Automatic annotation (TrEMBL):
This is RNA polymerase sigma-70 factor (ECF subfamily). Pfam families: DUF6596, Sigma70_r2, Sigma70_r4_2. It comes from the Bacteria. Residues 111-161 form the RNA polymerase sigma factor 70 region 4 type domain. The lineage of its organism: Bacteria, Bacillati, Actinomycetota, Actinomycetes, Micrococcales. It comes from Agromyces ramosus.
Amino acid sequence: MSPIDARAAITRAHHEEWARVVASLAKRFSDLDIAEEAAAEAFATAVERWPADGVPPNPGAWLTTTANHKAIDRIRREHKRVDKHREALMLTDDDPPEPLGAIDDDRLRLIFTCCHPALAMEARVALTLRMVGGLTVPEIARGFLVQESTMGQRITRAKGKIAAAGIPYRVPYTRDLPARISGVLAVLFLVFNEGYLATGSDTDPVRADLTAEAIRLTRLIRTLLPDDGEVAGLLAVMLLTEARRPARVSADGELVPLGEQDRGAWDEALIAEGHRLVRDRLDSGAPPGRYQLLAAINAVHTDALDARDTDWSQVVALYDQLVRLDPSPIVALNRGIAVAELEGPDAALEVIDPLGNALDGYHAFHATRAELLRRLERREEARTAYDRAIALAGNTAETAYLSRRRDELS
């Protein structure tokens, strides 16, 4: 096997198997540090051996077995973990099963552990992206607009708190789920967004493995809470967004904005399922939450056969409701984008410019301003805004699109 083929197989295995390997080790050893480091060592071993030995028939099983050996070797070396070593060696397939939560899924267990309410929200999200999503610390740091060292410390402290507090590695029982679900939904949404528009400059612009994993886990959570409107809303958001993925990046590797996408390439089955979820929630008569409003906005976008047919007045009205529930600068920015389509770029800039202090480090703020200034023929201001957006954007497809739009001003 050529080194190129082996690297491709390792990259694919990392996308598909990282969460499974880490979750399996976390279940066995009850230690996230051991799980993460042993999984990383297993992949490093694959980098050394697969080019020479060939890719094993079952890469996931090979990686899990190798990681288990790495973990046991590490525990043996650390005398202070003699008891944990003994427990690990005693675990076999013949052991009696431990009490289960509502659903027995290793990756779901791992998510609920990473999203435990004893952790701060930013720690929950960062830890899940690292442990479940397999993102690197630099990728997560870019997503949070913080320094890599800060993010590394945040993740380390979160793992330490889980160990010190004895946070259990399990899915909560059914009676405990409602109190725990909001944090999990926030994490899954960020995992999905990282997959849909990846922040890493050295990764694929769209990571279907992460979007698929977020959708899979959200479906599982929906089976736990079938009457929870926000779970249904988040699933609908993901499905309606994922439906547009085939048209999201051009053949040249450039981002394609929503208004320019080939709507014939959208996944009709996912759109139909997403619309059905939105309609079911509307029929329930219950007041919509944040994810349900986002789902409704996406339903309006995907209901139009042509971008020119989009009901922008309805989109703005939905954003008005969303701002009352979530008055964050990013929601206000997205509302401003809708206002631009309904009332024009001048009105949109009046909404967006005051957000500059809060969003100066957010590339989409500057990209949005650049497009609005371009429409107003304020070319030099637009060029400056494009430059700032390009400097902040980590996604390769987005950078390519913004660079072309800037260069066209010449």
